[in-house]
Write a structure and sequence with these properties.
Order of helices and strands: HHHHHEEEEHHEH
Strand order of the largest sheet: 1-2-3-4-5
Oligomer: single chain
Helix content: 25-40%
Largest sheet: 5 strands, antiparallel
Number of helices: 8
CATH topology: SMI1/KNR4-like
Radius of gyration: 18 Å
CATH class: Alpha Beta
Number of domains: 1
Structural class: alpha+beta
């Protein structure tokens, strides 16, 4: 039996994507900032993310002295992008996905974000996409390097689909796409915090 072909991953896959579809007017992240930049969980950038940022910042801008992402919990992301009324519609997903989210610049109605939960064996974190309209749709769980390759139109074998399934299992319940069930989500407001401070 022939040995399984090793999948191209991380920086190598991202470089293939950049060669296939370089970003017009790309704005690379400066090398000094890349060295300092950490993910919201204080981990270093994945190999794929670092390689892509060296080509283009994906719309992000970082402070020279203290570069950092602006993460948010999923309920805040949903409220910001789709409105407060959409939050309970994405309730099941919000309860399931409790780690930080880093929103990418929007392209149309779909909103994609890096979910800083559990990375895969290559150190890449999943990119999850939300759509709101005919239901609250959640899909993706695609490793960042694979997501970049897909966007660039790099031909990928079916073996790459298993990577998303694995990330869906380690970060969610194994579904790579689902319609989120409506659930009431308690608002974590500043007023509640002020009341607690007043009780002390």
């Amino acid at each position: 039996m022939a040995a399984a072909k090793k999948l191209v991953r991380g920086a190598a896959l991202v470089k293939k994507a950049i060669e296939a579809k370089p970003v017009a007017g790309a704005e690379p992240v400066e090398a000094g900032i890349l060295k300092k930049l950490r993910l919201p969980n204080d981990e270093k950038l994945s190999a794929g993310l670092k390689a892509y940022f060296a080509h283009d910042a994906l719309g992000f801008s970082f402070d020279d002295e203290e570069p950092e992402f602006e993460p948010m919990p999923l309920d805040e992301l949903v409220a910001q992008e789709f409105g407060d009324d959409a939050v309970p519609e994405f309730g099941e997903a919000i309860e399931m996905l409790s780690d930080d989210c880093v929103l990418f610049e929007g392209e149309g109605d779909a909103k994609s974000f890096l979910y800083v939960g559990t990375p895969d064996d290559a150190g890449e974190y999943p990119v999850i996409t939300l759509q709101h309209g005919d239901g609250a749709k959640v899909s993706g769980f695609v490793p960042f390097d694979v997501w970049i390759a897909q966007r660039a139109g790099v031909p990928l074998s079916e073996d790459y689909a298993a990577l998303a399934k694995a990330l869906a299992e380690s970060n969610g319940d194994g579904r790579v796409a689902f319609d989120s069930e409506r659930r009431e989500i308690a608002a974590d407001t500043d007023e509640d915090e002020e009341e607690e401070d007043g009780d002390e």
